[in-house]
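Posting this for the archive.
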Amino acid sequence: MIRSKSYCFRGIITIYFYFFLHPLLNTIASPTRSLCRGDQRDALLELQKDFHVPKTLWNKSVDCCSWYGVTCDTILGEVLSLKLISYTTA
């Protein structure tokens, strides 16, 4: 009887680790992982053309979650908000 409780407890710990700690450790262990989703990055690059955002602020080679005016969910990488200002050309 004690042996079956031990297996049950071990199973609960394994499930807890897999669903809760494992994603957290992956996020911490790989800080260079891109958060920005590809489809959202592409949509932002289309907006860049319409709003004339300078390419130095929104550079395709940099994770879009680190672009100026873009705020992303730190876990899912989804764009939460945009801060768009008027960029005029002289």
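The chain has a mean pLDDT of 74. The beta strands are 70-72, 79-82.
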